[in-house]
Amino acid sequence: MQASLFVGSHLRRDLLILLALAAVGLLVPHLLNRGLIFIAGMVWINAVFGLSFNLLFGTSGVLSFGQAMFYAAGAYATAVFTQQLGWPLVPSLLIAAIAGGLLAGCIGFVALRRSEGVYFSILTLAFAELVHLLVANTGFLGKNDGLSALPRPRFSLGGWGWDLSRGDTFYYFIVLVSVALIALLRWVTGTGFGRALQAIRQDPERAEFLGIPVQRHRWMVFTLAGATTAAAGSLVAPWAQIVTPELAHWSQSTNPILYTLLGGSAYFWGPVLGAIALSTVFYVTRTLVGLSDLVTGLLLLLVVLALPGGMLGVLSRWTTRSRPAHHKPQEPRP
Amino acid sequence: MVFADVLTLLVNSLTWAMATFLVAAGLTLIFGTLHILNFSHGGFFMIGAYAAYSLTQSLGGSESMAMYLFGALVGGVVVAALGLAVDRLILRRLSGVDDAYVLIATYALLLVCEGGTKLIWGLNYRSVMPPTVLDGAWLAGQAVIPKMSAFIVACGIAVFVAMEFFLNRTRPGRLVKAIAADPWMARLLGVNVRLVYTATVAIGFALAGLAGGLLLANQTLSPSLASGFVIQAFGVIIIGGMGSISGAFLGSILLGLIDAVGQWVLPSLPGLPFFIAMTLILLLRPQGLMGRRH
Question: Which among B86, B103, B111 is the top mutation candidate for probing chain A, defined by the most A β-carbons within 10 Å of its own β-carbon?
């Protein structure tokens, strides 16, 4: 069963993977040109975005179509605090994560209570559109133009300083924060709470019988995913140096879904692999308009219909010959 | 607020409502029967519009009413054919799959539609003049009623009446309803369920293409047409109660009115009342206005 793939039984292996990723990530500026370094930074941010989404979807089985609102909340919070209030970066990042967590807490409280399945997905989509519209019409947040010329402030701790505005230093900062967030997400997956979520995914009723407070756990993981998503978003603001309402648009919400499914939702590292793969697809197809949408859509269809385990599912079938059962059997259509 | 303003508001909201209903009709038919919430519906609506556009342009413009309607009809046929292919290649394989994956698969199909449209027709915005008969407006006192609006409202009501008649008064329509209610029992009674499913998909997609052709002159054509309408149509069918045609009809009128009142009360926040109303109704009545809990 797929559950065994997710439970925190391979802590040492995952730690090694994380260290290897960090090492490759830190080498990137020495190997690639400036444009590609920017993309590499976005891949790190998107990997955290995807992993946060999969904490929700892969671990507890809740499909949200509105994660962009938390991403945008983090980005806008950082933009406002660093640019308009002149706060240092690190406290602003913390505030951004808290803002995302609070927003997710409120929305999860309402949406999880009243709706299930497809209704929940559409409700999160509606909430995200609400946030998108509000952001696009708030003068304080720059309306449709967003906020631009955002600073990459100096990072200082005691007497030691790190100027993030110069050269590639902000890229290293992104790697540092992303690795920390990935470690946090990996740790949560392995805790008792993470295992309870996996029980909920497999069978909510049975989990309830076993004494797991299903609704409260779903709410907690939704809130946590909102906070980590906002933390990912908070890195975007100083990296792209501009935030626009597009960050909250629902097409942005579908990005982590694409990463997760392409990589394999039953695996912790699935969204990371998916983010790398899709960024490559976008980079290769960037010159021909429409081709990236077409290729992404077809890849995703292929994954859902033929390779439900995603890329890592194919990989693990090659290596272990054990196939993750992904689909819940239902009444078949004739 | 004078009478003319109210009338204009009413005309605008009814136009919005019937345009949305035209798109939502096929969506709700497929959801009601196959229980698939088809994210790509907006994409096929857009393809219908582009197909109708290409046809009428290549035949010398859409000035004549007959040509305009012919374009819409061809749009419907083209999209119905695509629907048959989609059913064969994708929808049939989604039968045993979790709801979340169905939503994601049809979203992937929307991406394919958008990508294909961008490749074939490009990114440029195109606008189409309404046929000469529908160009212009009637004046009712101070109020202006565009003829195109009246045409859209008439189309919406016609599609609603036709669908209600089909589903409640004809044998194949009742069969669709019976299968929607209990496919297992229907199969037991010797009904060819798969054939009815295929026919439903064809009709649902044809309605999407037809809507694209009929609404051609009502908005500019661009590859972003799909995503705007699909969210709007989702709102309408969810509020109406998933799968209920009359629910979708009522839902679109209700949301159209709320949207129009919102534009009058909160002109600085267009679209916001729609999402607030949708959220509130979903929270108070998750099964929708005319729906039953599944």
Answer: B111
Cβ B209 vs Cβ B79: under 8 Å: yes
Which residues make Cβ contacts (< 8 Å) with residue A317, sequence separation at least 6? A309, A323
Whether this model's ipTM surpasses 0.90 comes out as: no
Cα nearest neighbour of A331 on chain B: B96
Cα–Cα distances (Å) from A248 to A69, A136, A165, in that order, read: 5, 9, 26
* Helix axis angle, B147-169 to B245-265, nearest 10°: 150
Say yes or no for a CB contact (<8 Å) between A289 and B123. yes
Q: Do A114 and B98 touch (CB under 8 A)?
A: no
Which residues pair with residue A161 across a beta bridge? A156
Contact A278, A285 (CB under 8 A): no
B221 with B125: CB under 8 angstroms?
Answer: yes
pLDDT in tens, A275-295: 999 999 888 888 887 888 899
Can you give the pLDDT at residue B280?
85
| Total-model pTM | 0.88
The string of DSSP codes covering A103-131 is HHHHHHHHHHHH--HHHHHHHHHHHHHHH
Q: Mean pLDDT throughout A199-211?
A: 87
* Partner B contacted by A333 (CB < 8 A): yes
Secondary structure class of A147 (helix, strand, coil): strand
B112 with A254: Cβ contact below 8 A: no
pLDDT score of B86 more than 60: yes
Residues of chain A contacting residue B34, judged by C-beta atoms under 8 Å apart: 333
For CA atoms A222, A223, A224, A230, the dihedral sign is: positive
